[in-house]
Protein 1
Amino acid sequence: MAEARPRVWVSQPLFGDIVARLGEHFELDAATDVTIWSPDAIADRLHDASGALVTLNERIGAGEIASATALRAVANVGVGYDNLDVAALHARGIVATNTPDVLTETTADMAFALLMAAARRVTEGERWLREGRWTQWSFDTLLGHDVHGSTLGILGMGRIGQGVARRGALGFGMRVLYHNRSRLPERIESNSRAAWVDLDTLLRAADHLVLVLPYSSATRHLIDAAALAKMKPTATLTNIARGGLVDEDALADALSHGRLAAAALDVFEGEPSVNPRLLALRNVVLTPHVGSASLATRRAMASLAVDNLIAALGHGPRAGDPPTPIGAPAAGGIPAKR
Ligand code: DGY
């Protein structure tokens, strides 16, 4: 009798042709519809799985893996992995992987799309026009703030932050400042045309601040009322990292009282719910966590996650050596909350 093949759980529908590669090695338990998984349902799917391919929707911690005695690998489709309790996985000898690099440029593009939309009031103008409020061209309609030649502030200078920096410096002639817990090597600073400053200086000097840092308990609400109070009233804030980095009520206060010109948010603390105070404001651009959502990049992410899982479970050309395991903290580190 043929030996049973290891079972692999795929939590959400991804590209069928890419997921099918898992079927060459494993028995597949793949979701066919977008599904909201409760912690109990996740534990149930993991119970006799050897591997799992999950998205940021699925929180995998000690509770979810408690009875998953066969589990050897969890592949996250995404560069951010705050949905995984990596310490709990590692303590059980379970390999965790993510999908860095393949989404860097696409996400940096989106940061710029959002920054520009906020600074030049693009979505606000579109809504205004659709509401039939444009009765005559006038000189002072929807005056925004320049992007070219302004100061770009980047908080979190990993690969995506460096991509944002290059776009700002080379494409828009911006002065680029960044803050990271540790200063990057001179070669990277010079490739990115960026100068390190402390967090206080970054907040005060930036005309356009972009958040690109990992989320953890140390960075929760890093941008709170005190941080926002240091920013210029003409500045914009763009968040393409994780919603929990920003105290959304404090942001809504600053935006509604003219203490910050505009914000652009692709991520939210309670997503998919969005703070109703933000929904009510005109000077905030809101998108549904689509920073890496180009077709080519989402295919590359799915493909890398599949490669990781196959290799972590001891199959394929890189058996035992998954391309992008999660080990030490992400390059550049997490700036300390202050
Ligand atoms: C990421 O890769 O972290 C994105 O937020 C999508 O998962």
Note: The chain has two domains: 7-100+295-312, 104-286.
Protein 2
Amino acid sequence: MTLKNHIPFIGALFIALLLFSCNRTVSEGKIRIGFSQAMTNDDWRRSMNNAMQLQASLNPDIELTIKDADYDVQRQIEQLEELISEKPDIIIVSPIQSKPITPVVQKAMDQGIPILVVDRKTQNQKYTAYLGADNIEVGRTAAKEIISSNTKDSIRIIEIKGLSGSSPAEERSIGFNQMIDQYGSARVVATIEGDWEKESIQKPLRSLYSGTVNADYIFAHNDRMAVGAWEVLRDMGLEDEVEIIGVDGLSGPNGGIQAVKDGILKATVLYPTGGNEAIKLALRILNKESVPKNNILSTTVINDVNADIMKNQYDRINEQQHNIEQQITAIKDLEDRYYAQNNLLKIVMALSSIILALALYSIYSIFTIRKKNRQLQLTNEKITVQRNQIEKIAEEVKASNDAKLNFFTGLSHEFKTPITLIISAIESLHETARDKGGKMMNELELIHNNSNRLLRLINQLLDFRKVEDRKFTLRASKTNLYKFSENIINDFKREAKKRNIRFKLTSNNEALEVFIDRNLMDKVYFNLLSNAFKFTPDNGKIEINIEDDADGNTVNIRFKDSGIGIPENDMDQVFQAFFKGSNNRKSSSGIGLHLSKEFVEMHKGSIEVKSVRGSEFTVTLYKGQAHFDENEIITEHDLIDTSIIDFTSEHLVDDNYLIQAPSDEAEKYTVLIVEDNRDLAAFLKNKLQLEYDIHLSDGTDAVEKALETIPDIVLCDVNLPGKTGFEICEILKKDLRTSHIPTVILTALGDQDSYVRGLQSGADLYLTKPFSYSILVQSIKSLLYNREKLRYYYTSNIHHIEDTDSFGNIEQQFIGKLNTLINENLGNSDFSVENLAESLNISRVQLYRKVKAMMGISISDYIGNLRLEKAKSMLEKTSLTISEIAYSNGFSSPNYFSTAFKGKYGKSPASFRKSS
Ligand code: FRU
């Protein structure tokens, strides 16, 4: 634990100790005195309690507890029991009655608690000590006072006794009667049993006086009953006839001394409470001093002789007592203040110590923190320097890596164009050489095969980077899997035949259609088959089996060969990049299978390998399209018309397949080739010029050339000096004069973004390099064919196309506008093609070429056709004369109209009307 962790604990402990030491001990070392008082409803008892408390307060060690039994014997017993259980050091008891209290007093003694009996006694002597005046003596003194003051011959006395069963009552009576009996002329004429209170005696006294009893003296066992007796006598008018003597002799306005002074009582016998003496005696007992069993307090008579003196004495004593009490209070206050200040001082000291400790610790901490901060700063600076170095190195590494990769990618792209050219040239030579046969043919085939192989390798390298960069986006389209597979294996049939390898394709569902990215899946097939052919010896066997899981949602494509197989150890690495089998002695890039796996997984499918007598690769694909994202499905029109393009003829031109180009030179279509690679441009021109009129542009004047020639088709590269192919395409498609021209984008950019960009620019076809010449030719033909179809549509719907935006098609808008202008001027035989071109905002030649390209006829023929069509419908629907119809449709004469009509429809207008 650090110092810091200790500080709160030490502080708390320190304060606790200080606070503890500040408090006055509550019980430890205290003298616990329990006092069971009989009652506190009279002054004598109150005076007793006061005297005890005062005496106790002189000794701070005394803890005095007073329990008031309130004149209830049972209660006093219970309270004594309570005191016993609290185990005080000593118990003082003033019993209400002797007998009932005796056992519990004895019990305290038995339990070893010293017990001091005061005033009234218990029945036996089983207590530690007794303190009180001698009540027999009290009785005697009272009797003596009567006898000595008497002047009569005989004395009649009424004795008013205290509570029966309490020792003072018994003893006072004994002493009194003893003395009276000794004096012959005195006698007790009546006895009243009181209970120490005046109410108990007044009624019996009244009845005594109302009867025969008469007395000279009344001796009451205490002053309260004595005053009560006086009240009765006063009420009866006898107060001067009887002398009353009481006991207690208390000072104060209601006390016996005052009653004597007031002439109410003849005398009172002093019966001291002994409160202070009781405490003193208790301390002595606890101090184990030897004390007498009976401690008798002295008594005396107070009468008119000494009442004043006694009163004065008591007043003085009371005054002194009062002073003492005040001093005690003052001392207590001082003491409390002392303790409070003492405590405060200690707390202040404690807090000061803590503050000092904290201050020291803070200073220590500040130094430590500063030191640590300095260290951290240094470390931080070091780390920053290191990080910067690492970043710099990483940047350098990245830059060098990027540079290498860019170089490598660029180079690979660069390779593609020459290789395309080489392959195309070889294909061309191959055609020529085929007829001649022999050695040249073989060599050409060798060059051809190896060029293709080289191209595949380059493509694989480029694909590998694309896969690493996660740049591939799947473009899946619905494909007949059997036909697709069949097309691919055609490429390998020649090799199979040459090496006498049994090569076959089987399927349990030849009609099965799946969603695949044909380009990627073609690469998977090619890799797996190349692999199989590489490792299968001559006369071996290679099989592709397509198994449609009819009940399930998958299809398995198995590629099985009878080759050398794959060693068990290599199995789990087969699909890792740059893997080469331990039993493979042939050259290998090691990325083919890795790419195959990536491509299959892009289809959410899986590829597995087994090796039992040869290798068996199983590609599992899902049926349907639910497992693809929406954007992975090619939903828009497929740019390559797959019904026309034959995948197998990728490198071999099949003459039978080509649509024969028109033989008539004049009828040749025009092709504008926009390509800055002179070799490729020359090659394409060379190949295509047999069938087409070729115009060339290196890209700098592509738009101008297109506007000038209005070609039938534009082939356009993307990366060009000046505008990109996409931009050129966009301009042409937006211009009314050229918007009808089919555009083919030729590019090395095979990524999704470029493809989308191509589509957005309005290109009709997007061919990635290296493209197969045969596919290019076929695509050109297909686009021209589509244009023919469109042309047919336009010419046969001349009337229905109106000047409206609703088609959203620039061509239809063009024809709509053209038709409106022509229709508006049908009756005007002077309306010329120039007027029309002017209204359309294009040149006469451009209008001529556009209409020719779109509809295959000249603009004047088009206007003529429109007039004839209109006239034909008027012949059918109206009753206008033939000459009216001829003029209203802009024919200069009815004769010319008839000739033209017959030329087009084979009938004269008159016979047409008749027949319809
Ligand atoms: C007070 C008192 C005194 C009397 C004493 C006897 O309660 O009644 O008047 O002297 O008790 O125990």
Note: The chain has a mean pLDDT of 84.
